[in-house]
Structure formats: C-alpha cells, structure tokens
Hints:
Oligomer: homodimer
CATH topology of the largest domain in chain A: Phosphoribosyl-aminoimidazole Synthetase, Chain A, domain 2
Strand order of the largest sheet of chain A: 8-10-7-11-9-12-13
Amino acid sequence: MEEHRTEIASLGEFGLIDHLTRNNETMQAGTLLSVGDDAAVVDNFGRQTVISTDLLLEGVHFDLMYMPLKHLGYKAVAVNLSDICAMMATPTHITVSIGISNRFSVEALDEFYDGIYAACSQYNVDLIGGDTTTSHKGFVISITAIGEVAPGKFVTRDGAKPNDLLCVSGDLGAAYVGLQLLEREKKIFMETPQVQPDLENRSYIIGRILKPEPRADIVTWLQENDIMPTSMIDVSDGLSSEILHLCTRSHTGCVLYEDKIPIHAETREMAFEFNIDPTACALSGGEDYELLFTVKQEEYEKIAKNSNITVIGYMAETTEGSNIITRSGKKHALTAQGWNAFKE
Amino acid sequence: MEEHRTEIASLGEFGLIDHLTRNNETMQAGTLLSVGDDAAVVDNFGRQTVISTDLLLEGVHFDLMYMPLKHLGYKAVAVNLSDICAMMATPTHITVSIGISNRFSVEALDEFYDGIYAACSQYNVDLIGGDTTTSHKGFVISITAIGEVAPGKFVTRDGAKPNDLLCVSGDLGAAYVGLQLLEREKKIFMETPQVQPDLENRSYIIGRILKPEPRADIVTWLQENDIMPTSMIDVSDGLSSEILHLCTRSHTGCVLYEDKIPIHAETREMAFEFNIDPTACALSGGEDYELLFTVKQEEYEKIAKNSNITVIGYMAETTEGSNIITRSGKKHALTAQGWNAFKE
Lengths: 344, 344
C-alpha cells in the first residue's frame, strides 16, 4: 500500500478533513448538519438520545503491528456501537477524533477511514463530526457514539430480579484466544522475520479479535419479538466481570452453569493448543462484544427460538451469592478474575 | 497540593471513576441516565441535538508547566461549549474521556475534575459519561459537548449575504499576548528558577488564555432579543481565519475596519511591550473564543444597544474580495495568516 505516499502536511488541517470526509454521505433522516461546521445537528423526532464514548491509545488498546489500519477503524467504531446496543438502543451517529504523527501518510489514514466508513455503512450510522490534531506520541482515537431509543425503552444494568434468566448472545472467549495467537505469531515474526504467520484455519478467532461486530441484530430481534430485558450490558471485559456488574447494580446474586457457556469449536481447539481452559477464556477473556442480559422467566419460550441466544443461568437472591456450577457439579464463587479463583 | 498523594492504582479503574464522579449531580431535566452504565440517555423534549468534539493532547494543546490542572479542566470544557454556542445552541451535556499515566496522583486528577465541574456548574451542563484509560505518553483529554436548540433555530457558517453586518462579541487578541507572556515567564523560570513570574497587572490577559468563557450569554441575548444571525462561528484560530471561513462558506466577500476591532487596553499595552501590532494579535492570535457572526442590516439598532457586541464591518459581493481597511484608510486583502500579508 506504500506505492504512493502523500504527506499529511501537504494537505493542511482543513484540507485533510475535507479529504477524509469527501465521500461522507449521511443516511439518517435526523442528520440535519454533519461535518464542516462548529458542531453537528441531529433531529430526534421525539426519541431519546443515547450517548457513549471511548478513548483508544496506541500501545495500550491496540498494536499497529498486527492490527491493520482498516480493521482498527472498523473496530474502533464497532466497540462504541456495542455500548449503544447494550442500552437496547439503535446507533445512529458517531464523531471521530484522531491524534496523528507525521509518520502516517494520507494513504495510511485513508485505510483507517475506510474501516470507519465500512462500519458506518454496515450499521447505518452517520459520521457527523470530529477533531483532527497532531500527536507527538502515538496514534490517539476518540469516538463518541450516539443512538436513539423510543421513550423509556432503554435497558440499564440495574433492573434484574432474582429468578430472571441470564442470557448471552453468540459465543465467548474467541477474541481472547485470537489475541493470544496474534501475539504468538508477532513474537515469532520478530525473532525470525522470514517465517510467515501461521493463521490457517483460524479465521473465526482472528476475525473475532480484529473485526468484532456489535449485536445490533439481537437488539432488533428483541424489539421485534416484544421482549424487554430487565438488565443488559455488553461483554467487553469477560463474562465473569460483566455478570458481576449486573449482580452488583441489580442487587442480586446469580447461578451460572459452566456447561451452558457458548464456546465456538475453533476457540476450544485453540485454547487446548495454548493449554488454557476454554471456560477461563470465556469468563475472563474479554473483547467478545456480545450482549449479556436478563429476561423474565416467562420469556423463555420466545428466547429459546433464537439460536443466537443462550440461557446460561439465572439471577438469585443476594444472600445466595454469585456462583458458577462447574461441569463436575461443584459450586464456586464467581470473581471478576474468573479463572484465578477457578484454578484454586 | 502534594501534601497527600494517592496512587491511581490504589483505586482501580472502576474505583477511580466512582471517585471522580462521586459528587456529580445532574441539573438538566433531560438527563435520564448519567455516568455508570454502557451509555447515557437524554430526553430532548422535541428539541434538536447539537454535537461537537475536541481532542486535546499534552505538549500539543497545553503545557502543564503553566497551565494549572484546574484551569485545564475548565478550559477543556469551555472550548467545547464554545462550539455549541457558535451554533446558537445551548450546551446541556458533556462526556469527558482521559488518558493518564501514573505520574498523576488521584489528588492531581481531582484538581482537573474540579475545573471540569466548575465549568459544568457555571454553564448548567451535565457530565454524563466518559472513558478513563492508561496513557503511556502524556495526558490525553477528549471532550464531546452536546447542546439543544429549538427546531431549525441553529445557525451555520454559510448563511451570510452581501451587506450583512459583521459582528464580534467581547474583545480580541488578549489570549495571544497572554500566552506570549506565560511563555516568556516560563523561559525565565527555566533559566533562573529563583525568579518569581512577573504577572502583575496582567490578570485580564492571563485570564483570557487560562480561563476562557464560551459566550453563552451572547446566544441568550440574541435569542431574547429575537435576533437570528445569518451565520456564526467562534473565534478559535484568529479573527482573519474565522472571517474567511464565513466568506468561503457563505460565498461572499467582506470589508473589515481595523479601527473597529475591539482590543482591550491591557492587550494593547502588552502587545507594545512585545513589540507586536495589537491588530495582528486580534487577526491571527486565536483562542479568544468570542462569537463572530453576521446579521441583517435592519438589526443594527438592536445590536448597537449591546456593549458586548461590536460591528466590525460588513459582508460584500465575492467579486469585491475579502479586505481590511486599515486605520490609514488603505485596503489590504485579508489572509488567514493576517499579519504576514499585513506587514508587506
């Protein structure tokens, strides 16, 4: 991709913004004013606005060595949209601010923005603003996502009741083993650059770490089927930590069944290759961006019809604590560092 | 302030967020859900939402050597609110994301947040979310400001017509000479640390660079007096550059009168001390955060009543170009780098 290198300085600040947003088309009817003024303006048509923001720093949240810029752009948007979905809301708009050094060419930034726009297009989200600045130290990305929800129809973390079913979308732990694989291949490459990375038959787990998808489809399905979860959160830090957030905020305990946790076959294989417990990957791995939520028991039949949702346990009284029942039938207290306690 | 130092690590990520937001009270009736969930939720009551965002990096946008953390927090919020005001909208909410290294203590962060909350309180704005992360390299601040406006009542940069009056709030150039003064005193301090900075009788210009105020008061006054500007922008990069933005976007030229540009007495004194032209400070200095706007000629009498607003010229046909008439009556083309051309 380095056939032609255009220096950022050759465009200037305003030229760069014009360049990066030249193909930016708005899709949302509510977008009254987009990039190019002091601020953007959005009409809400009587719906409520949902807002979330993330700051991503090179060397802390991503490694450009194995994260292609296009994927980085896509993922930076996806993880923000995931927070909007976790409120049972529909993402509609984003702002993207970047801090960049002149080691980046305009072509490199174009790759990054290709990823941003791909995610916007995938989820019908309008890019409506941002800030572009010089960074002396590393690539800085700040994204704010905005969504909408019908009045009062958002779902928080604090509404779960004892006996509510604990549900999760998709499968867990794949992003974690995907990251371990990328780290291993990076290490091998650093030591012997002539060796090509061995990522064959690992496309699922690699995809899960490099190109996560917010579960907007699950939100739509729940809305269409008239299922109102009692609490909801997205799985960014690992299943244990997220379940404990719901329990703490809802003042409940819980029972989680190890054998119900959905784990992809490729995740299991890779975990065994790395000699780690697949359950541990799901409990503590993080970056899965699935939705974890609770519903009333009477919703069971509806939920059971959706093969993308798994009931993994239920909420309990606080006095019963937050526990996992292992495959062997043993009960362990769930901790945020799932598998440390687990290995005892 | 370093009497007691609490390490950030001692609180942990969630503990730190709880600590920093422990006194966070919401004031806006529309704030349905604030800090602490996946996202915040805002009710708009049929009004339109205005959104702006800024990324501030240590060493690029601020220097902690002469920028006290409390002022930095205040200013970071103020400059974002200024963008909302520049749409003729009322700021209502902000999100604040920070990247911090462990060279910061919890007490230092408290200072920063004191400034954030002071600005929120001053402008009736709710802090509703954010992200707190580790930075290996410098302090990173990303703020998104949200505001509201009655349907269709926002003002963009592109509505000015020939013969509209060109107006500016407050006075210009003070922040620039304030910064020059701080830079000079920093240099003296670095060379001879025993010398105390000489900032006496310079409180106005120092205040303008360290604690700028968004002109929400001007927006309110214009609304109350039923004056709808035809275009508007805030003065962050210097008067010339902002006037040219309005001209370009509105497809007009302009005539600016040098003798009408409002400059504070202290700014003039300091400029003479530094041997720079006060007009040049106003034209190219930046960081004044005043509002620059155009109104129809028939609004003149109303505008003239407000001593915080000065008519500095008028918009012209594109064919007439964008010009400044100097005190001596000469006409010069206005350029974004105002005083370079000016000195020829």
